[in-house]
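Fold this: 9-hexadecenoic acid cis-trans isomerase
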Amino acid sequence: MKFFPKSKTALLITIIAILGGCAMIANSQFDDMFGTAEPQARMVVNNSTQAEFYHQQVQPLIEQRCVVCHGCYDAPCQLKLSSPQGIDRGANKALVYDGTRLTAATPKRLFIDHDSTEAWRNNEFYGVLNERQQSPALNQQAGVMSRLLSLKQQHPMPKGKILPKQFNFSLDRAQQCPTDVEMDSYAQNFPDWGMPFGLPALSQPEDEILQEWLRNGAKMAPLLPLDNTYKVQIATWESFLNGDSLKERLVSRYLYEHWFIAHLYFSELPAGEFFKVVRSRTPPGQPIDTIATRRPYDEPGVERVYYRLWRERGTILEKTHMPYALNNDRLIKYTQLFFQDNYQVTALPSYKPEVASNPFKSFEAIPSVARYKFLLEEAEFTIMNFIKSPVCRGQVALNVINDRFWVFFVNPNELHAKEHSAFYNDQQDKLALPSAAESNAYILTNWLKYSKLQRTFMHNKAIKMNRAFPNGEHLTTDQIWDGDGDNTNAALTIFRHIDSATVVKGLVGREPQTSWVIDYGLLERIHYLLAAGFDVYGNIGHQLNTRLYMDFLRIEGEFNFLALLPPDTRKAELNKWYQGVSGSQREYLMAPHKLFSQPSGINYQTKQPKQELYQLLKQKMAPVLVTDNNLENPDTPNNHLKALDKLQNIVGGPTTLMPQITFLSIQGTDKTRYYTVLRNNAHSNITSLLSEDENRLTEQDTMTVTSGLVGAYPDVFININEAQLNSYVSSVLALSNKADYQKLMDNYAIRRTDPNFWQHSDTVHADNKKQHPYKAGLFDYNRLQNR
């Protein structure tokens, strides 16, 4: 008897039922052949030969060949191979990044949301190691990881410098996440998609190491024990973070909410170990019992929270690595900063969202000048919290900032500290953030609410600024923080690379079109909007409200910078930054400038005040200005500087063919030097939420060349010797079409198809680690080009 579905819906249901039935049959047959799947005991003690084999041969190989694609949130199939726990957890077919979800997803954070492989199996993760009957043969035959490695050995890279179209490297590609039952079908349909995907196969010795490990049950070992010097430091800082008084508990909560994604390290000890501060149900001296919440300020569900140092168990990745030094000097400084002032704490703040999401409410008792000084102490890290953050893909979030700009900070004003604290306390309700609506939020109603609040706050801020400069006094560079003469965090450069971004110390590259001046209120809100309050698993309303509110904060930072310029130039400058915006948008942009129209206190001498201001700021920052990433620094040979500086003079033209991030290595007679060629995308304005391409001004694109490697996601590796430098630069300058670019790559690039790719990758990582032992992490290859 034939069955005719009455509608497309019925047809779809029928197909799903048939496919589901097929899957059940396939699973049943697999169970019959290999036994039912269940997690295996894979961890061995550290003094065993299996542990030695894992630590010395297997783990380094997995890091250098696998983690470079499987380390971040957006790792294909959520397969994070950066730790034994991640390897054993396995993969998941669902997408973490979904900008259209109507309701928040359940978080699936390794080490946080579940603590056992069994728990992950109950939450849609499946094993990539054999979890059925255990034998050397079955461990390979029924293990996804083993079979994917074998598939690559059987089908090496297709010949040619550029891979064919069957290789899709776009970030939004449909993922293929085969389970052990689905591997036969995967191998038949995608024979060229063995692992590493779209990269050269492992060498025969490397493949044999991993296959031997997999055959023998993929035994793994925990980290080697910490020595006593680390234990002493941990005890010291946990003691500092867990005082019993209300003041100590409030300060510790404040520190935790700003350190929760930091990689803390003890700078007085050798590099290599990093720690995260976590909330625990247990006090120091007992095993950590982590409190898992979406946000660091969510209700912990216990009467007393303890702040503990948890040893980082995963590979350090450049994208998520935010190092923060702890040492004795800093312990003394923070003790003085937070406890020497005679302020009183009579009660601890609530964890209710409307309070906890608003730091001006929850930490009202702590003087704002103390909070601000703490944030400035490691301002690069503070900014890094939202520029890098644990989010691995963020084009919608990042199209709220320009591709390159400089950041300065308002000088903490000790004389008016109480007045400033009173102002922020008075403005608490106006400084509320959309994260108060948590992870399931409405879009329009929330945006209108917070737009009105921000407008009111800017009005009140302008009034306060007008009152702050009576009797002919006006804003000058005296109000800009100079790092107190010894803090190198006073001036920063931010680079955006479409869907990722980087922050570095110093003023890198040519003078940018825009800059921000950040004060305490702005810095704190940026952190609680984009770091502490942001949930990557949140719904579309939460994500869009976050993006829309960041528009307000960018405008505020730009307003602070423009206030240093002559009043008659501010509007013209703003018009350059916001070409083609609507009348209502232009009115919003100009509103704070109408409220605060005082002349600048700077005596400008030229008709180019912005350039003059930049020079004044450079002079002010000179004692603390970091030049490590400037092309013009003492370590750059003159011939390198002369050649590479030509790339920074290009506007439009060849830049339109260049990738976002090019890692350039130049082999010299004494050593290899590394540079980064960054493309800066120009826009008529950056007010568009979803139509960024319509605002692109490609003819105004530029390039910045930095000393050292900047960025977590290289698009291209260029490897040349000094004799080739001028010809490489000339080739870039002469780019006019795709054929020119392909020739450039043919002559100088280490493509993803290059047989020497892994050797070059290993060298780059080793040199970077040697040069930056605390800062370096593995680069991510998910954005490598294929052209």
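Residues 226-348 form one domain. The CA atoms of residues 2 and 91 lie 39 Å apart.
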